[in-house]
What does this fold into?
Amino acid sequence: MHKKIYNTILKSLKRDIKLPVCCNTIRSNQEIFEVLLQTSFLNQFIETTVKELSCFSEEICSADTVIKRIKTYGWKNILQDFKTINLQLFKKWIDRPKGKVYLAVDYHDIPRYIKKERDWKPRMKNCDDIDKIVHSRKQSGTHNFHRVISVDIVEDDKFTVDFEPVFQDVDQGKMPISLLENVRKLVDIKAVLFDRGFFKAVTVDRLKDQDIPFVIRAIKTKRINRSLEEFKNMKRVWHVYDYEFNKTAHDSADRRRMRVKTKLVITDSSVVEKISAEKYDEDDRYFLFITNMPVDSRYTAFQLARDFRKRWRIENGYKMKKQLRGKPVLFLML
It folds into this structure.
């Protein structure tokens, strides 16, 4: 199976990515792509792959050759070529869903390790990708990351329909909407499933403006905790509350004097899953989400709670993506 996937990807790269070849070029594009693919499949750096392959053959291009060939072509051209390949694979997907589908939108952060500047000896040279790095809370020993946003179909079969790199100077609130507008041309959207990172007034407001159905897992703010306590005291198994974002409820990006109304839905997972309540932690037992979809019955509320698990199934796929570490193409291949 791995060999079939490898050959399919290699064939697509050879066909659609036209790395520059000069009259004195020794290494073919296929050799470059073979090194890159093995780097990704083996979850290691290009230098390590070249060193390992050199043990079996002397006709292996150097890591510098691979990196230089890619840098010469330019990341924008590579990105566009990968989008073309992705679209072709989607159109050839024999078992792709014919009806409406659930989508998941998420950000993927890939650690980028940069040496700290010393006060007594400033850096003489910036790293070549410094303008493509975003800063976030510390993970894996660094605050610096390459970030990619993707839209995935999360039905029985998963497929990344569209993706974009995220830089420091872009409006990250608009990016999910623009991606979803592109995806709408390819698939019918049943609903878009978001994690807590999108629980923001700006995101909800834009989704409502574009009439995009959504389900966003809720952050337990003070107001939501009050609703949850009422829910527990009334011993309900599901309920819908009116919820309104305000300018001070969430992070600074939301403080634009806007008030956005939506619905907060709370369900008891022990009833939804038909599992004893004693087997749940207090924090995990109740599933809370906001949505603009009609929730007028117990069946609908429970079904949305169950359907959200389709998003959880792809988290392992996200983790695998973040482990691919081929430096020149990692940022784009995701």
